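Model it.
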Amino acid sequence: MMAMGAVDVVRGPRSSVEELLQIYNHSESVALAVDNPELFNRIAETFSSKAAPRFVILLWGEKSSLPINIMEGIPIFNYKELIGLGRESRKAFFDSSDARKHYMYETISSDDIATLVYTSGTTGNPKGVMLTHKNLLHQINNFWEIVPAQPADRFLSMLPPWHAYERACEYFIFANGAKQVYTTVRNFKVDLQQYEPHYVISVPLVFETLYSGIQKQISTSSTLRKLLAFTFIKISMTYMEMKRIYEGTYLTRSQNEQSYFVSMLGWLRARIVAAILLPVHMLAEKLVYSKIQSAIGIRKAGVSGGSSLPAHVDKFFEAIGVVLLNGYGMTESSPVLAARRLSNNVLGSVGHPIRHTEFKIVDAETGKSLPHGSKGIVRVRGPQVMKGYYKNPLATKQAVDEDGWLNTGDLGWIAPFHSRGKSRRCGGVIVLEGRAKDTIVLSTGENVEPLELEEAAMKSSLIQQIVVIGQDQRRLGAIVVPNKEEVLEAAKKLSIVDADATELSKKQIANLLYKELRKW
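Modeled.
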């Protein structure tokens, strides 16, 4: 579709019929390409009566499984028929005597819209993000800085193929001749071991799940092995922190240089502590981490993007020798704006901007640019920034100013450059600290960033998800989704319930979670 200059409008098959119909009508689409007969049957009646398409393409499955006359008079092609029609049309064209004379190929402009990707619509109707060929080509041409892919490399992916993050990565992978392996949540761990991918490009939840699985496996081992593994991990985390300090990749917001004497003392202390802990870390690598690395199966690096990567997950994988690269972007920027590199992997950040991309931090009230190290609203500019929202000039104007700066709505700061040694490696990296609209203002006037609290609570194995709330209230509250299996096990260990119990009361769960939250 994109190669012929048409605009594809993508949406996941789990969307409601109402949402699909609203997007179809708003985008002024003329045809449908549907995943399978089940999806077609779910939407056909509504679409045939309210937005009859010119034709339908059935990507998988056979037309024989469709109800008769469900879209009477509307051509329906399965994938094989579509390919066959293309071959016939091409043959007939080139067999004609003046094919060359009538051969008219209209070149696609780089500024032409390639795709419309509709946002989630959590704050109203979804908005259609207009991404051009130029936007997507920027990603293809510049991802190599983050992932130096080779044709022999394998990538494992489980993101929806219509997602902007997945599409940009997929185009890059194919453009470099590498292999893409698709998996599902159910098969992810098996496929990791079977295919041993060089890279896994996914969202933080996938790496959190791997982290939880490893923690659980260690916790269920013998007392001696468990004590040994957790002691090793704690020592390795300290070693890695010291290593970051003396290598100059330890984040600091301060723009004022410490005195040379104090800086040298800090560097020297980190160097000494790291040297003392190095033999223990190497032993842990041989006895414990090598087995974990083999079980995970990621050869070169995991690349996380799409949302915030919890700090404890980031530090854990660093300690056990599994490389995680964290990135940042949004649908409106095709989507990648910044990412950590293999050569400069600064934990706690989303790395440096990718090529031809500018960042600035502005004051939320005045819009004035702030110096490096100052926290404010993140704005970005570059070739990957969208053309705008389809048929919504007001929303476009609010998102992108006259100079092309996109307001991300995120809070963050840019690490300042320091004048001495390797500390310059941290300079210029982007650090995010939540969404501007997420800031909770209590009735006491105190401003609270919920992200830090949520990340701290997520370290607990008892908590599956948490959202901190409390706008205009005197105190904070939280909506917590418990990890039921872990909560039950904890209750048995604390003798709250019998060893053969299979469930807990809501009061028991609430009491356990309350104690756990206070601890974290």
